[in-house]
Amino acid sequence: MRTEKNLQFGVYIIDTVLLTAFMIGLHKLMCHVAPDLVNHINNLPWVILIYIISFSFSYFLFPSLIPLRFIKAEAIIKRIASTCFMMLLFVSLIIFVSRPFANFPRAFLFYSMMAYFVFLLTERFILKAILTGARAKKKNLKNVVLIGNEATVYQLYEKLKTPIHGYNIVGFFYDGICNNEEIAEKRIGGVSDIYGWLTTHPEINEIYGYFPKEQHDTINMMSKFCDNHLIRFYYIPAINVFKGNMTISFMENIPVIVRREEPLRNGINKLTKRVFDIIFSALILLLIFPWVLLWVAIMDKMQSPGPIFFLQERTGLDGKIFKCIKFRTTKVTNDADEKQNSPTYPFGEFMQKNNIDEFPQFINVFIGDMSIVGPRPYMVQQTSAYSRLISHFMVRYFAKPGITGLAQVTGFRGEARYIDQMEGRVKKDIEYIENWTFLLDLKIIAKTITNKFRKENGNAYETDNKLHID
User: Fold this and answer.
1) What is the DSSP string of 382-430?
2) Domains annotated on the chain, with CATH
3) Residues 58 and 86 sit within 8 Å (Cβ to Cβ)
4) Which residues sit opposite 310 in a β-bridge?
5) Closest to 210 measured CA to CA, from 154, 266, 140
6) Cβ partners under 8 Å of residue 449, min gap 6
7) At 433, which helix (H) or strand (E)?
């Protein structure tokens, strides 16, 4: 579509103009703040030209996602990171193999790329806000027609009708009776009426249609008609075989419906989460844990002599059993893996209420048994019981268990006395698995910390050990 291409080109022009302004401003700033970094930059216009050429190459490889109508912030950040990384490679290649730039300060290159990442990120989100606002005011719209009278068509309509996405739903074509009043009011005609109608409405940009499997000929006719009239046709498959989220994947050229989308199956996402877990847990273990350990050891010896640590078998990723490390908060018993409640002592009860007993789980995170954020791990006996009582309970174990999780920061943190409370917790755990992003992890960590300061832990005993199973 010409409008989308113009928008993409417009973003490129804005980027190059702002990149020029950025480089001039950065150079002037460095002259005052760190003159040693720019002493050997004798020809700034040529340097700016090299940056623009490098950006152009990287933009060609990783074009802006801003013109897209459905795009998450995480995808924008990843694309900008890719763009800046490729820029770094191109600029390095051009400068460091050129004799005129033999003395070019390498530190300036790295600092400029770091600063430009922040600059470009800010620019992208400002452009996204401007574009979203324009679409909400019915500018930059795509005129769309929907075909079909099925639940999947209704679901798509609910997504497309949101003003910020920039779709103008002109109407529906379907046969039979529709129980949805909003859609019924937008009915233009039956499916067979669409061909004649489209010939007098050249403003239509896209058609989304659902057709039963016995109407393959109709699908082919519609596709051919749209090709001949410069209309993009999208076939809506009957994916309402499952309830809840799902996605379409491909094995070679064969489409298959995936029961649920799991972002953490992506190798890059998995690596990102693991690297963060290692860095975060290492910092905690080096800077905070030794002092907590000393404090706990002293208090334990005074009130309840025995082991400082307590190992308990929990269910982890893919249902595998691991030893969860905790500070001991109860009197020493021989049935800790099976008995849910054991007598505590004063300091042990204090640790439970304030979750201090969970500090050693950062060791589990560091060695890879757990993650900072994820569904809370349950004892093996509880997993066995609740997998029989609660539908989809085992889906939780498609992800590594975490020290904190989405359920814990959205109202499912305390003691779960009833099945419906546990069902709500499981629902949130699955929501996390299906919608994981790195920013979501950061939000959950931030929410966990703020909840501590707000004293939202009045019933926060070891939440996973207080469930009573008869």
Assistant:
1) HHHHHHHHSTTGGGGGGS--EEE-TTTTTT--S---SHHHHHHHHHHHH
2) 2-136 (no CATH), 142-240 (3.40.50.20), 267-465 (no CATH)
3) yes
4) 326
5) 154
6) none
7) helix 419-434
Evaluate whether 146 touches 157 at the Cβ level (below 8 Å). yes
In the chain, the amino acid numbered 91 is V
Query: Which two tokens mark 8?
Result: 């993409």
Nearest Cα residue to 22 out of 147, 122, 127: 122
pTM score of the predicted model: 0.64
Main-chain dihedrals φ then ψ at residue 248, nearest 5 degrees: -105, 130
User: Which is nearest to 280 in space by CA: 379, 452, 404, 377?
Assistant: 404
Closest CA to 350 of 320, 327, 372, 368: 327
Phi, psi of 309 (to 5 degrees): -95, 160
Structure confidence at residue 182 (pLDDT)? 86
Q: Report the percent of the chain where pLDDT is more than 90.
A: 26
Residue 466: predicted pLDDT? 43
| Residues 172 and 146 sit within 8 Å (Cβ to Cβ) | yes
Confidence at residue 255, expressed as pLDDT on a 0 to 100 scale: 67
Nearest-5° Cα angle at 378, 377 to 381: 155
- Rounded to whole angstroms, the Cα distance separating 117 from 78 reads 11
Q: Residue 74 has which token pair?
A: 């995480």
Residue carrying structure tokens 């049935």 = 335
Q: Which residues of the chain have pLDDT under 50?
A: 336-337, 340, 457-470
In the numeric block, which tokens belong to residue 155?
């679901």
Structure tokens at 12: 């490129």
- The CB density around residue 87, as the number of other CB atoms within 10 Å, is 27
Sequence-distant (≥ 6) Cβ neighbours of residue 237 within 8 angstroms: 152, 210, 248, 255, 257
Closest to 148 measured CA to CA, from 170, 171, 175: 175
Q: Give the residue among 138, 146, 184 at the shortest CA–CA distance from 163.
A: 138
Q: Which long-range contacts (CB under 8 A, 24 or more apart) does 384-392 make?
A: 385/469, 386/422, 386/467, 386/469, 389/419, 390/419, 390/422, 390/423, 390/426, 392/426, 392/430
